[in-house]
Amino acid sequence: MPEKLLNDRLLRALRRQPVDMTPLWIMRQAGRYLPEYRATRQRAGGFMTLCKTPELACEVTLQPLDRFDLDAAILFSDILTIPDAMGLGLSVVENKGPQFARPVRTGSDIRNLGVPDVETSLRYVMDAVRLIKRELQGKVPLIGFAGSPWTIATYMIEGESSKNFSRAKGMLYGQSDLMHMLLDVLSRSITDYLNGQIAAGGDVVMVFDTWGGILSRDAYQEFSLGYMKRIVQGIKAEGRSESVPVILFTKGGGLWLEDIAGSGCDAIGVDWTVDIDAARRRTGGKVALQGNLDTAVLYSSPASIRRQVAEILAAYGPADGHVFNLGHGIHPDIDPDKVAVLVDAVHELSRPFHARK
């Protein structure tokens, strides 16, 4: 039997069911903009220690819920846990980002990769999910997540963050058979990983396709969306008594909303480059929509934040299936007091759109 939640707004919205107000959570809501997070990270001694210690991951996951009336918790982890478990030697360098000691660049490199067992090499993530779920005590749903195969592949091939993705795109166009081989093992790994998070207690899962938007339409269909469809199918095929909602988010993917809506996902994350009303019309009610306030709005005044929130709510209108969020992750230098303004504004100003006659 699925756990009964005290606040199930998010699940209802993702299933396009009526709610009393628009639910809200924030991408990277557990992060550097919170002083309590910075204190915990300092105590941990490093980002990867924070990720790999379930008690600390649980602590920072819950921190934003202690401050704000959010409608969901999201697991604190990283999209690169899978390649780390594959033995690529992940480190996170301060002010530089992730780096791999052993990048993947040849057929031999790719053939040596195996699908990690989620209860051995990734057990720390599953233990964190179990612990967070227990500590939440049914207060709100827990969101699990993974990076998309294409996004993870770019880091594995480049060995670090990139501006032009020359190695990854070079493989895509010049050695597409190798790219498909890599994306295949990643899609199988991500499917197991997300199903593992669900089995450990996750109520919703989200796939972050951070770099799908750098691709051409044809390349996006073949090398990004095609593999995310496999993941959705692999999650839905588990035959659970109640379907776990799956959110797909391609940053810069506004050109392909219709295609994403046909993937079998339950919801699409929308960045701020797309009008939410247009997104709703283009997807034809097939999916819920998540988004899509420009993160930079949180640098402005409380009155401006409320005005921007009101505009997005009005654009979406009284239809079901809206989850309010930022168009991407919150910036580290955002004032937490501005987040409180955002949360209160969404809940207050959305109520009239959900009043039933």
What's this model, at a glance?
By secondary structure, this protein is of the alpha/beta class. 48% of the residues lie in helices and 10% in strands. The mean pLDDT is 95.
Provide the structure class.
alpha/beta
Across the major sheet, the strand order is: 1-4-5-6-7-8-9
- For the residues shown, what is the average pLDDT? 95
Question: Globular, elongated, flat, extended or rod-shaped: what is the shape?
Answer: globular
Rg on CA atoms, Å: 19 Å
The percent of residues in helical segments reads 40-55%
Helix-strand string = HHHHEHEEHHEHHHEHEHEHEHEH
Instruction: Give the termini distance in whole angstroms.
Output: 33 Å
Extract low-pLDDT stretches: none
Number of strands: 9
What is the strand content? Answer: 5-15%
Count of alpha/pi helices? 15
